[in-house]
Amino acid sequence: MGNRDTDAPQDVHVSPRLARLATWQLSRASARSHKVLHDRLAEADASGYDYRVLAVLGDLGPVSQAELGRAAMLDRRDVTHTVRALQARRLVARQPDPRDARRMLVALTTAGRAMLARLDLVIDGVQREVFGALTADERRTLLALLQRLS
């Protein structure tokens, strides 16, 4: 039976007052999304930070760790740890900046590009798993609304 206060179906265990709150629903959706993402990346032997770093390098090419952190929205310590771990797995390499020999750039290796391609498929699957109940138009609308909010 539907709730008279909203058109959306309600979870019997959630207070109707909470269920009407967009912030509550956004938090629940975020928690589910994060769990699915974490689980699928772990199955692929990666973390969210790994994907973020590889994705930025795939998009921007070689960059300094400071630039990498800004683009991936990671703090300095997390970038350092993630780059070291990815370097140990030979997925990224550090190389001198041709414009400034004092500066090192982080770049994808061939293995890193292959891993990014595999993880892109995992991420595509996560998108389908998390947003599968929505039509393509609804997904585009949701993404546009979330971009406006963030």
Please list the strands of the largest sheet in the order they lie side by side. 1-2
Query: Strand content of the residues, in percent?
Result: 5-15%
- Residue-averaged pLDDT: 91
Query: What is the makeup of the main sheet?
Result: 2 strands, antiparallel
H/E element order: HHHHHEEHH
So, CATH architecture of the domain at 46-124?
A: Orthogonal Bundle
What is the 3D shape? elongated
- Total beta-strand segments: 2
SSE class: mainly alpha
Quick summary of this structure?
The chain is mainly alpha-helical and 150 residues long. It contains seven helices and two strands; from the N terminus they run H-H-H-H-H-E-E-H-H.
Description:
This protein has about 150 residues and is mainly α. It has a domain at about 45-125: Winged helix-like DNA-binding domain superfamily/Winged helix DNA-binding domain (Arc Repressor Mutant, subunit A, Orthogonal Bundle), CATH 1.10.10. Helix content is about 65%, strand content about 10%. The protein has helices spanning about 15-20, 20-45, 50-60, 65-70, 75-90, 110-130, 135-150; strands at about 90-95, 100-110. The chain has a two-stranded antiparallel ribbon. Helix 2 crosses helix 6 (about 110-130) and helix 4 packs across helix 5 (about 75-90). The longest helix has 22 residues, at about 20-45. It is elongated, with a radius of gyration of 20 Å. The model is unreliable at about 1-10 (pLDDT under 50).
